[in-house]
Amino acid sequence: MANQNNNLLNQINPYHSAVETLKDVADLIGLSSDALEFLQYPQKVLKVAIPVKMDDGSIKVFEGFRSQHNNARGPYKGGIRFHPQVSEDEVKALSMWMTWKCAVVNIPLGGGKGGIIVDPSKLSESELERLSRGYIQAIHKNIGPDIDIPAPDVYTNAKIMSWMMDEYEKLNQNFYNRGVITGKPVSLGGSLGRDTATADGAYYVFEALAKKLQLKADATIAVQGFGNAGSIFANIAYQKGYKVVAVSDSRSMAFSARGLDIPELIEHKKIHGRVDTFKESEDQIENKEITSLKVDVLVLAALENSITHENVENVQADIIVELANGPISPDADEYLYKKGVKIIPDILANAGGVTVSYLEQVQNASNYYWKAEEVKSKLKEIMIEAFDNCWETAQEYEAGLRYGAYIVAINRVVNAMKDRGWI
Ligand code: NAD
Q1: Residue 12: is its pLDDT beyond 90?
Q2: Where does ligand 1 bind, in terms of residues with CB under 6 Å?
Q3: Whose alpha carbon is nearest atom 23 of ligand 1?
């Protein structure tokens, strides 16, 4: 599946998909051609070469990007991805999606995203640290708490954010500048609840949809991608009584029609690095089939383009939760919408991460830190309000939740642009 997915990543350009969806929604709401023209392009894209001294003494140069899509509503905000398939267009697409995501949940931030073309599993810890610091040396003049605030994404984590924040502070006369990066460890100003925020947020909106659709309490769930977002979502759903029958990672899939014990599977994955060898897994089904399993709910928590025209006809789930960014291509999305599949779109489903990143920044700015329950209750309130806005807008336009979310987001961004006199 990893190879198959990588091929799909190469075939379908996520930036083209992002622009296509923007144009479709622009048509639906009669967006002015000026606004559409403006919004198709990131305001700035940085491309940097990062020379890293490797442990053997040689120098290797890594390519990195930072795309800043729109800051009409606030500083650019978005994660940094370390992955061999990172490309300029992927980062541009992700930065546009961040603009919509921040607007959907109505937090005062714009959209940005960064990435480095690298397979971090092939680097030693010290090489990874030098790469992370090198990236900040290359882009530091273009980021800051009021300019652009990075955060973790695929294959980056709190430790990498700490190195980056430390490097940024060093480059700025050692002034404390904690709000420059979010997703930091709690010891350095990170927020309690940030580690589970994306999955928590997704669960709140999933619960809201389940209520609307009167989903049965023991509905079956399959989760593609068992990393930070996917494994935590699977665990919450399991604790709430749902039957998580399948999970997959880049190498393998665990399946049990009776339902998997997710806390045990998380431990298993930590020890063995894969999921198919889990004792409860009954069937060695090829993991490429996870998207075609007969389940009530399919959670996509891996990468872009998991479902495209090539496999969309095999999808049997009634509900899809897009924890990953851009996991369904626009043509596949149209097919699923016509089939009646209810999709919680990425810009709403996974907005919990950036929402708690925003709450982290608020705490950094006031230098006063909240208890985990307070963070969670603020997150819940924001996510439920966002869901209600998207649901009502979707009803009004007789459209799916994706268009509902896009309409809410685009209108907010366009209003800010108009108020600034940009259009
Ligand atoms: P992660 O690196 O922790 O996990 C990614 C998981 O996907 C890994 O288990 C990996 O093995 C798996 N995977 C990769 N290719 C796969 C394939 N072809 N089939 C099945 N599994 C595959 O990353 P994450 O932080 O969990 O992010 C996952 C997705 O969620 C990404 O699209 C990311 O942009 C999005 N997201 C994450 C957050 C967050 O806070 N973590 C926030 C918003 C969006």
Answers
A1: no
A2: 1-2, 5, 153-155, 198, 224-230, 248-250, 301-303, 323-325, 350, 353
A3: 154
Distance 303 CA to ligand 1 centre (A): 6
**What average pLDDT score do residues 145-153 get?**
96
| Cα-to-centroid distance, 423 and ligand 1 (Å) | 36
Distance from C-alpha of 115 to C-alpha of 86, rounded to nearest angstrom = 6
Pairwise CA distance, residues 399 & 362, whole Å = 35
Q: Can you name the CATH fold of 190-423?
A: Rossmann fold (3.40.50)
The reported pLDDT for the residue numbered 284 is 57
DSSP 266-311: HHHHHHHS-STT-TT------GGGGGGS--SEEEE-S-S-SB-TTT
Range with the poorest average pLDDT among 13-17, 198-202, 311-315, 316-320: 13-17
Nearest-atom number in ligand 1 for the CA of 229 is: 26
Residue nearest (by alpha carbon) to ligand 1 atom 29: 324
Instruction: Calculate the CA 167 to chain-centre distance.
Output: 25
Pick 42-182's CATH classification: 3.30.450.20, 3.40.50.10860, 3.30.200.20, 3.40.50.720: 3.40.50.10860
Q: What is the pLDDT of residue 303?
A: 84
Q: Separation of 178 CA from ligand 1 center, angstroms? A: 26
What are the boundaries of each domain within the chain? 42-182, 190-423
- Quick one: average pLDDT of 144-173? 96
Instruction: Output the pLDDT for position 9.
Output: 46
What pLDDT does residue 198 have? Answer: 96
Residue type at 301? A
Q: How confident is the model at residue 285, as a pLDDT?
A: 61
